[in-house]
């Protein structure tokens, strides 16, 4: 390890590894550090399902060999009473996350990126309004070292362990409300019998068994499964383990807990992205930048998008020789266009869904108030077509749940408003505060309407 780099990436999960992968081979001196020992990098509690489109859109390699545990053809979604099953087609991968992450890091390292495990960023170096590097602790050699870099990439996941130590008030120190996160827990275990259709992920929506979230059953081949649940944070619900133990038999009766492979829980942000990924000398990516999908909590694909956008912004900054927020700002424009605007609209959809009762969901799925295609459209683009809501209004008004439908119409309108507002994202840092206040107002108006 040297004392000076062009880029210091803190964290080697999906976000950090993707940033490094896209920065490699461009003549920059890049250091990536992670607190974990090499063989555990990429190992974190996760459902491990990633849509194929992310790899295609970013020109990244598909998982293969030991990195790929199951090819996915779609998702089966079950209503709380289990009477309705929707099949949403779509290709993806159930991955071995440590193996895939380490592959990216190895490829980056072969192309010149220095990767150091067991090394933790303890605190930022912050001078003249710029992030200038970090004080690191290298556990292998038991030594502290000061590393300076033109750009630091914060990719520390949900811990936000680097940016949280920056002077509060900087836009990149934005925190999140507990209610804008899910507490999630999963186990990976062998199954007692062969799994029928391992190419389908199963999702069980059930407010009783997973309030504000859902249960999943994601096959990892024919006889292994990743099973778990998420519940909304900040609501004072009992511990996630209580839910797991109580309902496991309902959603995973074939799971053989005597042959458990791994277990663990963590938090997932479920909101719009942080208001800016960029500030002077710093870019924030992945869970630390709240990039996960607000509705399903999948965050690996969008962590990759943010890493890609960060790498592009860094390459541009080195071309012009300026590392201020103004130049690194292009990461925001890239991310919002590719994912962030959709995330903002899906945050509203998530807030609506979390307020529904199991009865509402049973009814909505049975009557196809929103259809599979609409759900697919909403999750792919963040658009809930007004026409869908209006059509549903007409059908359902006669059938007895007008309040639900009226709300759905408001949701669709506000989802569109949110996307429009994100399309007007400021082109430089000067107008950020004004724009943020407009976003906050939109959220407040929406919340008031939902609580009526
Ligand atoms: C139970 C659960 C299920 C999920 N299921 C899915 C799913 O099926 N599909 C999906 O796409 N997403 C899923 N997610 C979300 C997904 O796991 C995350 O969005 C994604 O892994 C975030 O990647 P990241 O690189 O931002 O963070 P992380 O993977 O958390 O990586 C952060 C890295 O930073 C390192 N680090 C932290 N602080 C420091 C420091 N100070 N110095 C050095 N290193 C540091 C850590 O060791 C870690 O390796 C799930 C999440 C949970 C909790």
Automatic annotation (TrEMBL):
Residues 180-268 form the Digeranylgeranylglycerophospholipid reductase catalytic domain. It holds the Pfam family GGR_cat. GO terms for biological process: phospholipid biosynthetic process. Coiled coil: none annotated. One of its GO terms (molecular function) is oxidoreductase activity, acting on the CH-CH group of donors, NAD or NADP as acceptor. Keywords: FAD, Flavoprotein, Lipid biosynthesis, Lipid metabolism, Oxidoreductase, Phospholipid biosynthesis, Phospholipid metabolism. Residues 6-36 form the FAD dependent oxidoreductase domain. It comes from the Archaea. This is Geranylgeranyl reductase. The lineage of its organism: Archaea, Thermoproteota, Thermoprotei, Sulfolobales, Sulfolobaceae.
